[in-house]
Amino acid sequence: MHLPQAETIDSDWYGKALSPPASYCLQHGPEGFRLTASRQAPALSAPQSSPGEFVPELWRYDVAEIFFLEPSGRYLEINLAPNGAWWACWFGKVRQAESEQPDFQGVVTESELGEDSWEASILLPDSLFSDIGGLRFNVTFILNSPRQTFHSLAKLPGAEPDFHQPDHFLPLLPGVPS
Fold it and tell me: Is the distance from CB of 114 to CB of 54 less than 8 angstroms?
């Protein structure tokens, strides 16, 4: 796997430089949205997790995350571990999970986990969304476990890390329907 047109996140929540930076690429195609995340540094994936497996609480270890906000106000959080394990949840309001979740059928992950680098991707079919028009997003990383650092593409307010701030999510990148 390679990251075409990769973007980087090079600082943490507090503005401290992240070296090496984390990279991501968000693409949209006929199959849906694909997030690819990588870093040229070792990673700690959740113990007893496997590539392609749905695993709760991945955020307790190194993880890339993407959030999608629909115009209705509901938002989707996806966690992607360096080894390709993943987790997803729809929220109706900030930090309030919807009582009924889809089965997330059609989600596919790939990963390459090396000693000193990792790259993982997740494909999210358009069918997961009510409407892809007007979506907003944010890409975040939790890295350097067990001494976690927190990184966000969108500049989020607050003295302590909190990625659940959909009012500050960004319009989708050029080339992706918005």
Answer: no
Q: pLDDT category, 9, cuts 50, 70, 90? A: very high
Token couple for 153: 């593409």
Tokens of 176: 């992706």
Residue 64, both tokens: 């890339």
- Taking the C-alpha atoms of residue 88 and residue 75, their distance in angstroms, rounded to an integer, is 11
**Residues 23, 124, 93, 51, Cα dihedral to 10°:** -70
DSSP letter (8 states) at residue 46:
P
Q: b/e string for 146-161 if b means 16 or more Cβ within 10 A?
A: eebbbbbbbebeeeeb
Per-residue pLDDT tens for 32-56? 999 999 999 999 999 999 999 999 9
**Which residue type occupies 82?**
P
Which spans in the chain are helix H?
none
pTM for this entry: 0.94
d(C-alpha 61, C-alpha 130), whole Å: 30
Q: Buried b vs exposed e over 21-46: b needs ≥16 C-beta within 10 Å?
A: bbbbbbbbeeebbbbbbbbebebbbb
